[in-house]
Structure formats: C-alpha cells, structure tokens
Amino acid sequence: MADSAYNTPADYIGHHLSNNTYALSDHDLMILHIDSVVMAILIGILSIGLIWLVARKATSSVPTKTQAFVELIFSFIDSQVSAIFHGNRHTFVAPAALTVFLWVLMMNAMDFLPIDIMSKFYGFLGLHEWKHVPTSDVNTTFGLALGVWFLMIFFGIKAKGLGGWLHEFFCEPFGSKIWVWPANFLFNLIEYVSKPLSHSLRLFGNMYAGEVIFLLLGLWAATGVSGIFFSSILGAGWAIFHILIVVLQAYIFMMLTVVYLAMAQEGH
Amino acid sequence: MNLNFTLIAQAIAFAILIWFTIKFVWPPLLNAIEKRQKEIADGLAAAQEGKLSLEVAAKKNAESLNEVKQKGAEIVSQAEKRASEIVESAKKVAKEEGDRIITSAKSEIDQEINRAKEDLRTQVSTLAIAGAEKILSKEIDKKAHADMLSKLAKEL
Asked: Domain range for residue A185?
C-alpha cells in the first residue's frame, strides 16, 4: 500500500530504504544512523535480557518451560560450537556465538513487521525516516563482522604469539622461502579482507533484498484490486519463505563467526 | 548504503552484548545444565547399584529359603522317627504287660483247677467210702482203710 504522499515509486522505495541520520560533524564518515543503532541496542537488550532473566534463576532441578526453551537454544549453540571449536569454548567463543545468533536472529526477524503500517506508527511518533531492520543496514553487519575480524586477529596472536602469527602471515600457504613472501602476504591479505566482507555482505544482501521485495509488493498493491489480491498472496508467500531466510542467515552468521575464530586459533 | 560512524557504534554494542553474555548469561545456564547432567548420571548410577544389591538380596533370600526348607525336612523326618520309636516302645510295653497278665491269670487258673481237683478228690473219696459202706452194709474200719483210701484218692 503506497501512501498518497509518495509521488513516484522511487520516492516510496527511497523513503523506506533511507536511514534516520544524525551528523556528528561535517565529515561524511561522521554520520550516525540513529534508527539502526537504537533498534539494534533495543533488540539486543530485549533478546539477551530475556534469556538473562531466565539464566539468573536457572535451576538444575526440573526446569520451567521457559528455561527448557532457553536451554534448547543453549544446547543447540553449544553443540554447534563444540563441533567446530576445539579448546575451552565456554570462556569466550560459545557465549559470543549465542550472542551473535540471538541478536542477529532478532534483528532479522524485525523484517516480519509490515513496513507501511510500521512507518505510520513511526510517523505517529514523529520519526519520518525509520528503518526498523538493523541488519539491512550495511553498517550493522559490517560492524559485527569487523568485531569478529578483530577477535580473529586477537585469537590468532593469542594462540601463536605475535611472531608466530606474523610468520604465518608471510610463510603460509606457499612455504617459508623468502621469494614467496610477497605472494603469501598477498594471499593472506586477500583472505583477511574478504572474510569480513563476505561475512557482512551475505547477511546484509539477504536482508536488504528481502526488504526490497516487500516494498515492490507494496508498490504493486497500490495499483488496484488485482494488485492488492496478488501482492497479498505473494507477500504472504514471501513472508513465510523469509522465516527460513531470517533463521538461516542468523545461523550462517553465527557459524562463520565460530569458524573464523577456530581457524584463527588453529592455523592453516 | 554508505559506511559511516554507525558501524563503530554497532561494533561497540556488539562488544558490550558479548561481554554481558559471557559474564551473566552463559555461566548460570552452563552450571545448571552441567549440574543436572551430573545429577542424572549419579541417579542412573545409584539405580544401577540398587538393582545390583536387589539381585544380591534375592540370591541370599533364595539361599536362606533353601536352608530353612532343608532344616524343616530334617526336623520332620526326625519327628517321624521319634514317633515310630515311641509307638514301638509302647507296643513292647503293652505286650509285656499283656504277657504278664496272661501268665498270672494262667497260674491263678491252675491254682483254681488244683484246688477244685483237691476238693473233688476228697469228695470222691468220701463218696466212695460212703458208697462202699452202703454196698458192704458193713462198717469199715475207717482207720484201717484210711491209708488205702488216701492212696486211692491220690490216684484219682
């Protein structure tokens, strides 16, 4: 359903895909997407806070249904991590994976909210540009991937020492002869650049594309009765399919996080 | 889609959330689950132990039951033996008593017979004398024939 205030389809889509920005300074890089940050933090507090409320009262005797549900998620994450990461996973990697999975899952799940109704609601609150899916903002996904990237380097250095890590940087994968150092360095550089890029853009692309398809269906619905009919059916179908994408992308993001950290620790 | 300061903010939020999870969410859940796992394992082990001791007790029961049965059978056979002994001795005593009674009765009977014979002899001799007196119509000298008569009486 396109609002009559939108003059062209481009207006409609552009409006729904632009962030609520706040300029910290004149520089282009010093811009803050208020909507992404606020929604991400709210969702983070909500999702992690909810399981914290359960974890706080966790009992080892017969668990309540809520605790059983949380333990289900816990065991799922724990078994996934234990299959990939060798070492003491409970000090960092497994809880980090739990955070990533829940947070990304909940941020993705915001995509299920109907955009036009929600934009009316945000307009009522006085927020005229408000994207409520933080993971369809590349800054969010890249922010997470960058966090994982730094952790990756930290884990690598912690496991192998700075010397060992640098040695691997120059002597893998072709060998330690000095004339292959440039090639090794180039390969590792590409690997270190491509990891966060593929990590973040995969999630961003999926969520962004999902949102765009909902917008296009919304545009179709504005064309008349048949448009409303077909876009409702297709919209329902896409929303159902999107349940899979939302969970799958959260799972992939979590698994890649664990895989990168495990690889960093174990080396090639 | 342009990268800007937002990504730093999101990375910081990410770091804080991870820290929070590590500090407050993961440990209690892990503790609860591991403790429960241990409790379940202990419970299973205890159940196994109980099963084993039950088996041992059943075996012991069967053994003692057997022993008791054997003892019972022994006691019963002893009692039977004793009973037959008692019956035997009672029979013996009864037979002896019977024999004794029979012999005393016999001797009494003999005495009676003898006494009757004695009586009969004297009466017969008297009768014989009286008969002879009557037949002979003549008085017989009792004294002269007394010897002969007593001899006769003895012969009867």
From this structure: 20-266
Query: What tens digit of pLDDT does each residue of A165-203 get?
Result: 888 888 878 888 888 888 989 999 999 999 999 999 999
Within 8 A of B15 by CB-CB distance, chain A residues are 147
Domain tally, chain A: 1
Known catalytic membership, residue A206 = yes
Which candidate from A55, A103, A134 shows the least CB-CB separation from B28? Answer: A55
Q: Which of A202, A226, A231, A232 is catalytic?
A: A202
Q: Which of A254, A253, A264, A251 is nearest to A86 (CA)?
A: A264
Contact A75 B33 (CB under 8 A): yes
Q: Give the pLDDT confidence of A88-114 residue by residue, as tens digits.
A: 899 999 999 999 999 999 999 999 888
Distance between CA atoms of B121 and B118, rounded to whole angstroms? 5
A138 touches chain B (CB under 8 A): yes
Whether the predicted pLDDT of B1 surpasses 60: no
ipTM summary value: 0.87
